[in-house]
User: Fold these one by one.
Assistant:
Number 1:
Amino acid sequence: MNKLPTPRDIERWSPRRWDDIAGNHELKATLQNFIRSGPCNLLVTGPKRTGKTRTIKHGIKALACPHRTEDLNPCNKCSLCRDVDCPLDGHLGLFVAATQSNFAFTQMDCEAVSREVLTTLACKMHWQDEGLIVYLDEISALGRRGMDTLLIKPIDEWPCIWFASAVTVLQPTPSRSRERVGGLSEAVRNRFAVKVGSTVPSMPELFDWVRVRCAEWQIEIDDEKRTLPELWERSQFKIGLLKQQFARAAATPGRRLTLSEVRAFNYEALD
Ligand SMILES: [Zn+2]
C-alpha cells in the first residue's frame, strides 16, 4: 500500500478484477463469455444499486483493454480503461474512446439525452463501426420519456454492439410480487439477444468483500461479530451504499467502522 486511500477514493471505488465484484455471478459469466467468444446485445435488469453499471463497465474494460491479463482482467491503467470509468461527455452526452483496442466505447445517459440527439445519431459515421460498444445507461428512462423506439432503427441497422441497463421496480400483484422494467417497450427489449438480471451477494460473499476492502482501505471494524450482520441487514447488500458508509468511516480520525455508525447511517436517504 503506497498511499492511504482518501474517503473520496473509497466513494469512487470500482472493481479492478473480476474477484472484486460480489454477487452478479450470471452477469460476470456472460461478460467473460463475451471476451472469449465475442459480444452481442445485452440487457441487464435489476433493482437500483445492485452493481449493474459497475459490472458492465468492468466487462467493457476487460473486453476492450488492449493489455488484458490472462485471467481476463483489464489493466485499469490505459486510456481505454480510464475512459470507460470516466466518460467525459461533450455537448451531446456522448463520448467515444479511440484507442489501439479492437473496440471503442461510448455511453449514453438515457435520463438526460435529448430527442434531437437521438434522432440525429444516424449522422454519426463512426457508429458504423462493428467494434463500437454503445452503453445505454438506464434505458428504461427513454421508455418513460416516450423515446425508446427511436433506438429500433439504429439497433437493427448499425453493426455496433449495444449494452443497456434498466432499473426494475417491485410491483405487488394480487398473487405475488414481480419485478418489472417500467417504461421499456417490448419491441426494444426484443432487440437484446441476452438478458440478465442483477443479483446481490450472499452473506459470506458480502462479508468477504467487506473484509478485503477494509484491509485495502485500512479501515478497522469494531465488534465485527455484530457490526457485519448489521451492515448486511441495513445495506440490503448494495455495494454502492456500503462504499459511502466506508467513506464516512475513513473520514473519521481513527478510520474505524463502529456498530453505532452503521445504525446511524441513513441508507434509505440515498436511494
Ligand atoms: Zn487497459
Number 2:
Amino acid sequence: MAIIPRSYKEFKWAKAYGANLITSCNNCSMDFSDENTHTPEGWINTQQTGICEDCHEDFLDNMYGDPT
Ligand SMILES: [Zn+2]
C-alpha cells in the first residue's frame, strides 16, 4: 500500500523512512512544503498529480476560470 502523506509532518516522516514519494512539484520545481501545500487534500494531490497545491489551484483557475 502506498504511503500518501496528508500533512507536511507526515510527508517529512514518510521521507525520513525512505518511502517512495514524489518530493517536488513538476510545475514550479519547488520541494513540497507548507509554503506551497496547505490542506490534507492538497497533500494527497501531491502524490497523485505531482504538483503542489498552489500550482493545482492555478491549474484549476486557468482551466475553469476563477469564479470570484
Ligand atoms: Zn508547484
Number 3:
Amino acid sequence: MLETLYFLGIAERRTASDIGPKFDGNQAVELPMIAPPPSLAGLRAQAAGCRACPLWKDATQIVFGEGPAHAQIMLMGEQPGDREDLAGKPFVGPAGQMLDRALKEAGIDRKKVYVTNAVKHFKFVPRGKIRLHQKPNTPEIRACRQWYERELATINPALVVAMGSTAAQSVFGKITPINKSRGHLIDMKDGRKALVTVHPSYLLRLPDQDSRAREYERFVDDLKIAATQLQRDKAA
Ligand code: SF4
C-alpha cells in the first residue's frame, strides 16, 4: 500500500505538516488530486512550495531542472550542491563544469539537454562556515520522485541518463548498482530508454590523477552512447 502511494505520481501529495514533525518516510497521507501543471514553468512554481520531506527547511531554495521544455535527453544527478543551492540552478559548481566538459567531448550540446536532480533541495550538515553535502536517504528520494515523474511527463524525453546511485534509484524505483548497469541502453516500460553512469562529482573525489583520467574517459564513453542514440532518433 505504501509503495503504491509513493509511486502514484501526480495523484498524490504528502507534506511534512500533514505527516507531522516525526517524518521518517514510512508514513503516507492521501491528499486531494491536483491538476497537472500547464507547462515547465508552472511545474517549477508548483515545486517551489513542496513540503513533502524535511529538506526544504534548511535549503536556500529549490533547485529545479533546467533546459528545453521538449529536450530529447534528460540528465539526472543526485541533489543540488552548495553552489547550486545558492544559485538556484542545477550543475553550476565543479561537478557541473566537469559535466559540461564531458558532454562537449561526447558531442552533446548542454543547451539541448534537460538537466535535473533526483532530489530538489540541498541536504547538508553545517561544519563551521562550510555546508557538508549529505547523501539523500531512500524516503527523501521517494518523496521527491513525484517531481521527476512530472518532469518526465512534461518534457517527454526519449532517453534519461541517471548519473550516480541516487539518480538510478529514482529512475528505476529501486536501488540499482551502477557498475552492473552502466555502459548500455536499458529499455523502460514506458517506451523510453535509460542509461546509467557515474555522477561527475565521483570523478572529482578520486584520489589520484590516473584513476581520474581513466574514469573520466569511461564517463565520456557512456555519454557517447547517449549522443549516438540521439543521432539515431533524429535519423528515424
Ligand atoms: S527535496 Fe523534493 S520532496 Fe523534499 S521538499 Fe524538496 S522538492 Fe519536496
Number 4:
Amino acid sequence: MENISEFSTNQVFRSRADLMTWVQNVARSRGYVIVTKRSNAITKDFISKIVLGCDRGGIARNKNAQTKKINCPFELIGKYLKAHDGWKLRVVRDEQNHEPSMYMEGHPFAMRFPDKEALLVRDLTELDVKPRNILPTLKVQNQNNVSALRTIYNFVQKLGRSRRKGRTPMQNVMHILQTKGYNLLYRVNTVTNELEELFFIHPISLKMWQVFPYVVLMDATYKTNKWNIFNDITKHCRQRIKPQKTWNSFHLKWKKLVESPTLNAYMQNYADLQTLLFEHADVLDYLYTVWLGKYAERFVSLRTNKHVNFRNSTTNRVESQHGKLKKHLESVKCDLDKFIRVIEKVLQSQAIAIKETFTRSPIPLDSIDDFWRKLDLKPFISMEYGDLNVDHRMQRFKEIYNN
Ligand SMILES: [Zn+2]
C-alpha cells in the first residue's frame, strides 16, 4: 500500500519546513488538512522527528464538545537523518475515514466520476436537473456506471464547495455579483463586519430603469417603504389616537388610501380618513405635511401603473416577473448563491422578452403614466416630523446612476 501512496517519496528535504510544504501540497490536492501530531526533539531547540496526521485524527477529549475529531488513521512520519543532513518522509498509513474536507484545487472533478461523467453531472446540475434525474442519464450514457444516487448528491455538494472556494455564503454572494458585473451598493457594520444593506442591480436592468424608472419604485422602494411609512406614522401618532378601535380603523383606512387604484378612489379614501380623524386635526396635519402632500401623486401613480398596458399585453411585467421569481424560488432548496443565479436567469428572460416587444413596435407615449412623462421628480420640501431616509437615498441613486 505504501508504494502506491501519493505521499511515498525518496526525496530528501533540506529542512522540516520544506518537508511540511511538500506534504501540505499533496494533501491539499486531495482535499485533506495535515497537522503535526507530535514532535520529538534531540536537544531543546532541534526537532528530529515529527508525526503528522489528519486534522480529523485523534479522539475528542470531551464527548459532548462539538469536534471534528473522528480518529482518522492517516499518519506520516518525518525524520531528520544525519547521514543525509536532511529530512525523509515515511508513510505509516495513507487512509482516511471520511470525505475530503477542503476544496480540491486542481482536482475539482476527479473524485469518483470519470471526467466525462463528472462534466455531464456538472452541466446538468447547472441546468437545475435534480440528482434523481441525472442518474438515469448517466446510466444510459455509460452501461458500466455503478453510481448510486448518494454518489451524485455527494458530488453535487463537492461542486458547490469547489465553486465557493472556501468563501462564506455571504462572501460568495458578493463574489458572484461582482464577477457577473452587477452594480453594487452595500453597507457593512464597522464593528461586527456584518453586511447590513445590499443593493444590486444588473447592468441591463439599470439601463431599463433609466428609461422606465418606475420599475425600481414599484418593486423595491415602494413596497419596503410602505412598511417604513406606517412605522413612522405609528411613532408620531399612536399617542394621539388613544382608542385601540380607532387606531385599527385608522390603519385600515390608511392602507386603503395608499393603495387607491385611481385618483377618484384616492379622493374618496382620503375623505373617509378625514371623517375618521376629524377630532385629530394634528394627525391629519402630520399626514398631509409629511406624506400625502408630496407623495400622494406617487402613491396613486404607482398603483395605476399596475394597469398600464404596453400594447395589448396584460398587466405590468415587473409584477409578473416577480411572480416568476417567486415560483422559481419555491421549487428549489435555496441557498444564497442559488438565489442569485435564479435572479440572474429571470433577469435574462425578462430582458429578452422586453427587447422582443421593442422590436415589434415602439411603446406609445400615451401608454406611459403621466408621472413619468415629467422630466424630473417633484422637488421635496423639508421634513418636519422625522426622517424616512427616502430622499437622501433617492439622491444617492440619482448621483451614482445618472452619470
Ligand atoms: Zn483524515
